[in-house]
């Protein structure tokens, strides 16, 4: 079964079980301060789990483009070194929003794997949550009893909180989970050592393929767990791993998800990808790792650019830049690539995945162009860096001192500014008979981590609900009336404190609001909430997970008072005019330069507009 068929079979199966098939949400997340990228299939549905948005379809299935590079779920430095972790990956998922629960989810997972994909049952293991005293959570008996109907009990394993209680991040929806693992070893190996002992033990041949999460709780900022109003199912199956199992390969990179890209890398570098030789030959291992890194990273970068996230120096853009630079560095260091090569992989990728993800085809030119420019500038940076380390080494060698080390500060500068990994610097230094001062490098690194941690820390308290009776429909988001009117009567339904290093602010949610939340580049409204005893200044309005949030630096004394909400009308009118002008400008650019002109970002406020776009050629 080729990979496109594997994906389609999953979607068709859940369609037959009454699920609505939806396209992947963009990989890059906007409007959620807790996430830069979708890191799991469930992330785009967070609002539905938390009850912040109305549930239109209680059963959904999709394949979601995900990116994991740091934090809770992955480490960039591991990708490419092993054969089954990725930065960008697809997560196949079926979802129940307050509809079916453990019994159906488990039965369907089993049916799909063993009857439709026909995976050998003797190679499957499942895990259930063993419970946690510290959280006050019990053993998942229901999941265990359901699994017992399908699989022998020696293949149902207990899992601890780390493996079997799934959380999206530090806060948010979460719950116990049940994973399905596949043992890809030969019969003789399986006879010798039971797969049960290798589950969740980092064995590259005994891998998790599917996670079924039973969302029952919300993790609050203070660490407590609160039961969700409804129970949901969130499942995530690693598409690349599933393809590997079905194509009976030892590595994700040997499947047709990656092989066309690896072949192209072989062609561009004149070297070969030979996974079978890597245990015996270190030189081949180095080449293989570099090729895996590049094959993995080109996907992350291309999908992210197609979603409108270009490499930059901050936030999500910086993550993409780091991934791209890591790939270039591996090409430079291990495959002797001396000029841009990543952008030349884009047509192969678009060709292979463009059916399922048309944005790769429609944005191909843009993706190539952006990557090539990044590559050109990073190759220059690499050259500067090489010169810098050469100069330092020559100077040190000329001093003819015993045991002199390359200063850790220089090693750190090369790492931080030029993206040089420590082992590259160390290799170059060794060429001059020198060692690097690793201890001092590590302390510079630690210092920098502390600096950025301190700068980025924002403490967000949990929402506190006021006693105000909800006037709208229950479970609905805030009612927005700001297109029809700039003033209305409002109550505060909840509020919370947000503290950063420099200031303390409060966020308010109103039941009905005329305040327009920042979106599409247009700044949020400002204005006041007026009550007989209090005036609250609204400094900004934002949208977070579908909820309109009003920002102020002072809470009113009486939070349950009846307020007259009033938007600064003059500012809104000027901003709106500039927003309209943005659309006119976009239309004009498409007429003059061509329809390929895509908006890549914009800022619209009461004073001016900024419109970011990319173009390749001019028709004029
Ligand atoms: N949220 C779960 C995971 O990412 C299942 O989709 O593993």
Please give a structural write-up.
- By secondary structure, this protein is α+β, with helices and mostly antiparallel strands.
- The chain is built from 17 helices and 25 strands.
- The strands form six sheets. Strands 1, 2, 3, 4, 5, 6, 7, 8 and 9 form a nine-stranded mixed beta sheet that branches.
- The longest helix has about 35 residues, at about 365-400.
- The two termini are about 50 Å apart.
- The mean pLDDT is about 90.
- Bound molecules: serine (SER).
- Serine (SER) binds near residues 93, 234 and 235.
Number of helices: 17
CATH class group of the largest domain? Alpha Beta
The outline comes out as: globular
The overall average pLDDT, rounded, is: 89
Helix content: 25-40%
Our measurement of the CA-to-CA distance between the termini, rounded to an integer number of angstroms, reads: 49 Å
Query: Which value, in Å, is the CA radius of gyration?
Result: 27 Å
Number of domains: 4
- At the fold tier of CATH, the topology name of the largest domain is BirA Bifunctional Protein, domain 2
Largest sheet: 9 strands, mixed
How would you concisely characterize the structure shown here?
With 620 residues, the protein is an alpha+beta fold.
Describe how the helices and strands are arranged:
Elements: H1 3-16, E1 20-21, H2 46-50, E2 59-67, E3 88-97, H3 102-116, E4 124-129, H4 141-148, E5 156-159, H5 161-164, E6 165-167, E7 172-183, H6 187-192, E8 206-219, E9 225-238, H7 239-246, H8 259-269, H9 282-306, H10 315-335, H11 346-353, H12 359-362, H13 364-398, E10 405-406, H14 408-418, H15 422-431, E11 435-436, H16 438-456, E12 458-460, E13 464-465, E14 479-480, E15 487-490, E16 492-500, E17 504-510, E18 512-513, E19 527-531, E20 534-538, E21 540-544, E22 547-552, E23 563-567, H17 569-593, E24 598-604, E25 609-614
Parallel strand pairs: 1-2, 4-5, 10-11, 14-18
Antiparallel strand pairs: 2-3, 3-9, 4-7, 6-7, 7-8, 8-9, 12-16, 13-16, 15-23, 16-17, 17-22, 19-20, 19-23, 21-22, 24-25
Helix pairs in contact: 3-4, 8-9, 9-10, 9-13, 10-13, 13-14, 14-16
The structure holds serine.
